[in-house]
Amino acid sequence: MSIRPAVHSVLIHGKALDASLLERIERIFSAIWERGTTMWLSPAYADLLDANGFDRSAFGLRIHEPGTTPNPDMVLSFGGDGTVLETASMPGAANVPVLGINTGRLGFLAHVPLEDAESLLGGILDGNYAVEDRNMLEVEFPGLDFEPGGLALNEVTVHRRDVASMIRISVHRDGTFINRYWADGLIVSTATGSTAYSLSCGGPIVHPASNALVLNPIAPHNLNDRPLVIPAEGTLEIQAEGRDDHLMVTLDTRSHKVAAPVRFLVRPADRPFKLVQLPDVDFIETVRRKLHLGLDGREGPSRAGGHEIGPGSR
Predict the structure, then answer these.
(1) Which segments of the chain have a pLDDT < 70?
(2) Angle between the 22-34 and 114-125 helix axes, to the nearest 10 degrees?
(3) Dihedral of the alpha carbons of 192, 86, 129, 11, in degrees to the nearest 10
(4) What domains does the chain contain, in order, with CATH numbers?
(5) If we measure between CA atoms, which residue out of 148, 181, 143, 177 comes closest to residue 259?
(6) Distances (CA, A) of 277 to 39, 281, 291
C-alpha cells in the first residue's frame, strides 16, 4: 500500500441508478467539477444518467472512449461490490486505481458510503489515499473467448445448470492431482473473493495480503471435502462433467453456458486490481464491523481491539 499523487481526471462508472440518489450524486459531481478535475463517464453510466434526465453538460461530463480518450487517474465506481468487480476488467481502466462508492448496503470493495463521499473526495483527490494491489485470476478455456479478457477478481466457479444431480469436478495444480469433488460446483476464490460467494458456502476469510487461493466445493456429497487454501502461484486444470449436456462457468458476476464435459485452466492474471483505500482503513476492522464479529446478544455491547462494539457502532 502506498500514498498516491493528486488525481486530475476520473472515470465514473455505475450499472444501476436509484433516482432518489441523484441529488446527492449531483453534489458529488459538483464538488469534483469545482476542483477542476476532468470527469469522464463510462457509456453504461452515461446512458443511466440520460435515462433519468440528468444534464451531463452542466459538469462537462463526456463519454470515455478507450483507445482515443486518455486513461484517467482514478475510476469512481458508484454502486456495490458487483459494480467494482465490473471495473476490474473494464476497457480503459486496466491498472487504474478504483474507488468504490457504496450506494447500497454491505460492501467490502465499495467501502466509501455515498453519504460520506462528498466530504472525503477532496482529500482523496489531493492524494490522501492508498492503493492495494489485489490478485486477479485469468481463465483459459479452449474454444471459448471470455470477454473481457477472461479475468476475475473474486472467483471462478463451475457449477451445475439445469438438473438436480451433482457434477464431478477434478482439480490438478501444475500437473499434481489435488482432489475429485462430487458437488453442486466448485469455487476457486482469490483472497479478495473470500468474503463473497466462498464465505457464504462456508469458506474461510483470507486476508487480501495473502498470496493464496481457496478451493471451495459447493454442497459436496463427501462431508470430508472441506475448503482448501493453496498458494496462488501455478496453474489449475479443472475438469467437470455431469448428467446435463451443459454446465455453467462464472467469472465474478459473468456467467457462461458451456457444453459438458468441460476442461479449462485457471492461473494468476498478469496484472493486479488496484483498489483505492483510505489510509486508516484496516481489513480486519472492516471485516469485524461489516460482519458484526465480536457481538454477543447475551452480553450487550462488547469491546474488541479497544473499540466498543454494539448496535449503532461503526
Answers:
(1) 1-3, 296-314
(2) 10
(3) 170
(4) 2-128 (3.40.50.10330), 137-268 (2.60.200.30)
(5) 143
(6) 20, 7, 19
User: How confident is the model at residue 299, as a pLDDT?
Assistant: 59
Identify the pLDDT of residue 304: 45
Look at residue 311 in the predicted model and tell me its pLDDT.
37
For residues 310 and 302, is the Cβ–Cβ distance under 8 A? yes
Lookup: cell for 252: 465474478
Predicted local confidence at residue 162, as pLDDT: 80
Q: Which three cell numbers stand for residue 110?
A: 465499495
pLDDT attached to residue 145: 79
- Confirm if 100 and 84 have CB atoms less than 8 A apart: yes
Q: Please give the DSSP secondary-structure letter assigned to residue 226.
A: -
Q: What would the grid cell of residue 154 be?
A: 473474486
What sections of the chain are H helices per DSSP? 22-34, 43-51, 81-87, 114-125, 197-200, 283-290
Q: Which residues are catalytic?
A: 81
Residue 13: closest CA among 121, 73, 101: 101
Share of the chain above pLDDT 90, in %: 71
